[in-house]
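Quick question: who can interpret this fold?

. . .
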Amino acid sequence: MGRIQKLSDELANQIAAGEVVERPASVVKELIENALDAGATRVTVDVEQGGSVLVRVTDDGDGMTSDDAVLALERHATSKITKLDDLFRLGTFGFRGEALPSIASVARLLLRTRPRGSDEGCEVEVAGGRPPVVRPAGGATGTTIEVRDLFFNVPARRKFLKATATESAHVGDVLLGAALARPDVTFTLSRDRRVVREYLRVGTRAERARAASTGENLAHVVAERGPLRLEAMVAAPERARSGATGLALLVNGRPVRDRVLARAVAHAYGSVLEGGRYPVGVVWLDLPAELVDINVHPQKAEVRFTDARGVFDAITRELHGALARAFGLPDLGNPFAHARPAAPTLQRLDATAARLDAATHPALGAAAATARDLAAGGDPRPGPSALATELPPTTLPRPDPMSTGPVTLLRADNLFIAEAPASTTLFNRPGLYAKLRFVGQMRGTFLVCEGDDGLYVLDQHAAAERVTFDRLRRAFASRSIATQRLLVPELVELPPSDVAVLEEHAADVTRMGVEVRAVGDAAVAVHGVPAILARAEPARVVEDLASELSRAGGRAFGGAVDLVLATMACHGSIRAGDAVSPEEARALLAALDEVDFAGHCPHGRPVVMRLGWTELERRVGR
């Protein structure tokens, strides 16, 4: 007998299961995707003990005949593709035909289905990859799949499952991803016979994102570049997290994990997000199927693009232009609110559910509990109201700066920005800062101003830093940063590696208005600095310049320039403790109205805080 032998079907299925079925959440993901491919409009998921004991997924899709139900449990049996070309134009979630047989090989599986238009259904039972048992069964149109005792025949895999709470959280993440992908479908999740989440179907992606992101104030962005269409619902820079766990990415309606895409979104915030921090929100990318390959990961969690660099650039540049205006101010919600929010009310029920009370529709009470569950640890600020229907480009109205309606739509070339209501993005309109009346300076650090709706306190250094950064960036882009030559060159000692970096980037350094020449291997002579940084010490400017260039790494948007200019602006602006005259304060306020991300310094710190008159009166007992 030869050394090479063909694996048995049972062993091959268990190997495939090791790639496809990692944990109960993997089972939920595969079964939900099958339900969506079958045309389901309602998907219900029930799990017990995190899914290790039971996973049940019920849908109202097309269902299957008994022959198809049995064949679906065979390896590489699928209704999604028929020829090789279909693999490069996939319009379905599944296509390999491996999910059901892989699950059945490591669990006890019961499939109950009835096709649409048929009077009778069937039931197929498989345990640990054994031959299926088929029998007639009744039931509603659609399919129900029960997966019990996951990994019962592979104890080595079962012992690697995490705690019930951890596995339940992963199942919840899968359901959220599916809900964001298909806002037109209702999803319900029950844990140990208790409904914990319910996403009722809505009309737009934006509505689904707001329903799923309770407490977050999200800006809606829609943009197109070539064949790529981008839609995003993202939060302000101060809501960013140290990892990308709060950022959901979907490509052609498929939730994916992609570090490159996550970095592209983070870079769209420019310098206001430091390295390693990512915004909170959802980003959808839609592009022709032939330009993206989803057949690169066993769980279809990763994708590849035909033009990855072009996609990265499109995301970063289109988002940046929109977010610079959408987040012209930080969220000026009540600064004295408690950290824990009150339980939110459930919103966006469909017309049918809205007419039913809890007695006749128990899911409504459960959904309300779900909303409270989702809001745990959330933000106390109220979420914005629903966005108006997007208008075609030819009928898009000009924004009214004084409008108090629910939404203001802006147009900039091929970019559309739907701004949140005035009641939540307070004064996100031209001329806000210039309309404030300067009252005085506090502790040599804060500028106190009076507005129509309350008291505004600005961090003078953060505000001046943002203005200086914007001027430096514009001048750099136009190659017009003026240089102030020094009467006597200043010698600055640096590590040899920093001297080498300055020489390597000599052209960009000169464009930044800095004139330096190497003096040996460990020192440079500074002959000029940017005229706009007259307050800064030449040695500090060059040291920071070399440091930022050295650590910039591979930032794609603006390269090292944003990091360098942000640091230069920091050391060349008004500092805490500097006296500011009323004229200087008013000039600074006026300048803030002309810059992007005016509510945040280049390093992401908020520039301004508001205390409303109502809150002030309440606190003094009026």
Notes: The first strand starts at residue 42 and ends at 48. The longest helix spans residues 308-326. The radius of gyration is 29 Å.
